[in-house]
Amino acid sequence: MFDKLFQAQQKAEEVKKRLDNISVSGEAEGGKIRVISSANKEIKEVSIDADFFQNADKEELEELMVVALNKALAQAENVSQSEMQAVSQDLIGGMGGLGSLFNK
């Protein structure tokens, strides 16, 4: 049983490392504001089109930054959930007949 817990912990660490290397992005205003994040929800880069920046007011820029950030973080969450779900399925499948104990 402890082997399975240790294996689960190792798998979780592997997923975390993999998520660090997956990039996702969120955009607003047709790509004029772009945010790149890791799938672990760490913001890596923010870019704003120079022309848009010159002509945007502070409030508009702040609102669009929030939109782009939220889109990037939502994508990161989706990727993270997919990766964790795949690992969970592997671990549950690896428990053999243990799952049948609860069906009796």
Write the layout of secondary structure elements.
Blueprint: H1 2-20, E1 23-28, E2 33-38, E3 43-48, H2 50-55, H3 58-93
Antiparallel strand pairs: 1-2, 2-3
Helix pairs in contact: 1-3
Please tally the β strands and state the result.
3
Beta-strand portion reads: 15-25%
Strand order, sheet with most strands? 1-2-3
Identify the overall geometry. rod-shaped
What structural class should be given to the helix and strand makeup?
A: alpha+beta
Radius of gyration, taken over Cα atoms and rounded to an integer in Å: 20 Å
What are the key terms here?
59% helix; three-stranded antiparallel sheet; 3 helices; rod-shaped; 104 residues; Ybab, Chain: A; alpha+beta
Fold and architecture overview:
The protein has 104 residues and is an alpha+beta fold. The protein has a domain at 17-88: Nucleoid-associated protein YbaB-like domain (Ybab, Chain: A). It is 59% helix and 17% strand. It contains three helices and three strands. It has a three-stranded antiparallel sheet with strand order 1-2-3. A hairpin with a 4-residue loop joins β1 and β2 (33-38). α1 runs antiparallel to α3. The longest helix is centred in the C-terminal third of the chain and has 36 residues, at 58-93. The two termini are 20 Å apart.
